[in-house]
């Protein structure tokens, strides 16, 4: 249940709680003419592949969205009602993470997300129920976050379809993590895509 890793102390070991990853890879991408946004490539890798790479070390990595070929190491799931929004997708993902103490939640359209992003969020959860990336404008990026799994499960509404992620999780004790340049960017429009290509 716990993975050990080395600390900075010679010969020292400490326990780090096992964490899971949930990637939300649904959505209609209307502003991208219905393109399969998670499969768009930036820097030689798909956006979905970039999110999965950022979650290296997560067990399991759960992708909520239509099954796509080429991602053999992930667990696939769907909302009970496909297209019912991020809270419904999160609810489906939570059913697949088992007893992981921490869950990292990522969107599948983040060209700047990195393993270091995930590491900073995970380390910050120690002092709260959740840690959320905050962009340069001070806006919380709910789909770049890490949570105590038990706290999220407790906060989930009975009917998650079309519920607001901010309202669902906003009442928890949240620590904010300042985004590094580009880290909170997402791809919503053709212009966003060109900027990052």
TrEMBL record:
Q: Where is this region: Disordered?
A: 176-197
Domain of life of the organism encoding this protein: Bacteria
Instruction: Cite the InterPro entries for this sequence.
Output: MobA-like_NTP_Trfase (IPR025877), Molybde_CF_guanTrfase (IPR013482), Nucleotide-diphossugar_trans (IPR029044)
CDD domains, per database record:
MobA
Q: Set out the biological process GO terms recorded for this chain's protein.
A: Mo-molybdopterin cofactor biosynthetic process
- In what ranges is there compositional bias, type Acidic residues? 182-191
| Domain (MobA-like NTP transferase): residue spans on this chain | 21-169
Does the UniProt entry include the keyword Aminoacyl-tRNA synthetase? no
* Single annotated GO MF: GTP binding
Q: What is this protein called?
A: Molybdopterin-guanine dinucleotide biosynthesis protein A
Q: What is the organism lineage in this UniProt record?
A: Bacteria, Bacillati, Actinomycetota, Actinomycetes, Pseudonocardiales
């Amino acid at each position: 249940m716990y993975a050990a890793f080395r600390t900075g102390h010679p010969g020292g070991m400490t326990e780090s709680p096992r964490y899971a990853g949930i990637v939300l890879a649904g959505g209609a991408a209307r502003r991208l003419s219905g393109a399969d946004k998670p499969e768009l490539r930036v820097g030689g890798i798909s956006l979905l592949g970039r999110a999965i790479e950022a979650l290296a070390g997560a067990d399991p990595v759960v992708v909520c969205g239509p099954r796509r070929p080429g991602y053999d190491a992930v667990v696939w799931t769907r909302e009970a009602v496909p297209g019912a929004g991020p809270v419904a997708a999160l609810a489906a993902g939570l059913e697949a993470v088992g007893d992981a103490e921490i869950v990292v939640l990522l969107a599948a359209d983040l060209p700047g997300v990195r393993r270091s992003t995930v590491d900073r969020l995970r380390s910050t959860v120690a002092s709260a129920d959740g840690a959320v990336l905050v962009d340069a404008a001070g806006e919380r990026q709910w789909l770049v976050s890490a949570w105590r799994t038990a706290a999220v499960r407790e906060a989930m509404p009975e009917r998650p379809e079309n519920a607001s992620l901010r309202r669902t999780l906003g009442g928890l004790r949240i620590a904010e993590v300042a985004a590094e340049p580009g880290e909170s960017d997402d791809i919503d429009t053709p212009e966003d895509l060109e900027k990052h290509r």
